[in-house]
Design a protein that fits this description.
Purple Acid Phosphatase, chain A, domain 2; alpha/beta; 7 helices; five-stranded mixed sheet
Length: 283
Amino acid sequence: MRTPSHTLIQFSDVHVVPEGTLLHGSVDTLANLETALAEVEQAEVRPTALLFTGDLADAGDPASYRRLRAAVEPAAARIGAPALFGMGNHDAREAFREGLLGEEPTDLVRDFVAEFDGLRVIMLDTSEPGQHHGDLTPAQLDWLRDLLAEPAAHGTILALHHPPIPSPLEVLELLTLRPHAELAELVRDSDVKLIVAGHAHHATCGVLGGVPVWVAPATAYGADVLAPAGLIRGYTGGGYTRIDVYADGATATFVPIGRGAPVYELDAETLRRYLAEHLPTQG
């Protein structure tokens, strides 16, 4: 049986708003995130880290970042996993650093690396102040190239906000990562096992430079990829992602926020007996 060396939980497009307001007049985005965090806390799996891939505050305001921090910090402590925060197009670098990280506010690009028992997580800041598309400067690409020149023991997860693969929605396709070809060449033949992104509010998978790409759902709300002609539509309901890293690759699994009624429930001992009775014996 293959077991993962590391498990990450990815949240994207949280879009926290100031207290007392609802996003688009109907969505309590912080409540969605708190529900998701509670689900992770109650789960059997103990994640290595909580990965937030951008659009954390809808308007990039300090108050919303403080609300997010107040929700995530105690939950992360109970879960026993650090929270890694990345920038999105709705985020503002100065307020992000001050309200969420408790750092001196600056407008510098925020790329960083975190390592966990041989697994390397690289977070790229693809935000372009005042714009909604994604970009990477030549200096960022050089920085990434230098990092990837030295493989990590358990490989690398590369995280960014803007997808480097197409979206089925025309309006979102115009707002993806622009230097995707340059990124493809950098990750080709590297130790990157999975590229994870957000931004689109719909789950999508693809390949870039031979590396699997996962575009996460939003915790805030979803984008309708099959809306009637002439309509761009969002809908209530969000999700997040479980990322499992193995010796020979990685997987990303969609997790809806909230659960439907159980179809069945088995305790572990019953499941083991069932498998013993129905799986072929090893010769």
